[in-house]
Amino acid sequence: MEPYVACMSVPPFQADPEGPTYVYVQVADHIAARVAAGDLVPGQRLPAERDLALEYGVAYLTIRRAMRELRERGLVITVPAKGNFIQPNATEGAGEDAEA
């Protein structure tokens, strides 16, 4: 499967497993950048974690850790048996987290 390609304002995701940042943080940063760019909008449901793993070319548990990271940043809420959603006020702090 092809690596995930976001809208034109956010570069495609390229994992750097040898870099100083964990891959799950890289995924979380990429999703945060998509929120800041308006590619993902507040209230939008994210694809299932297994689907995101396929899109990003990473393990399912990497996506699960990325979702935890995004919850801690206040960008995502998880509703049991429903999925992960972009927080209603997520655009307020998304750019700061994506650049960090």
Automatic annotation (TrEMBL):
Boundaries of every HTH gntR-type domain copy: 21-89
Alphabetically ordered keywords of this record: DNA-binding, Transcription, Transcription regulation
The protein's name in its UniProt record: Transcriptional regulator, GntR family
SMART domains for this protein: HTH_GNTR (SM00345)
Pfam families hit by this protein: GntR
Keyword Cell inner membrane on entry: no
UniProt-listed PANTHER family: GNTR-FAMILY TRANSCRIPTIONAL REGULATOR (PTHR44846:SF17), MANNOSYL-D-GLYCERATE TRANSPORT/METABOLISM SYSTEM REPRESSOR MNGR-RELATED (PTHR44846)
Naturally occurring in which organism (per UniProt): Thermomonospora curvata (strain ATCC 19995 / DSM 43183 / JCM 3096 / KCTC 9072 / NBRC 15933 / NCIMB 10081 / Henssen B9)
One GO-annotated biological process of the protein: negative regulation of DNA-templated transcription
GO molecular function list: DNA binding; DNA-binding transcription factor activity
Extent of the signal sequence: none
Keyword flag Acetylation: no
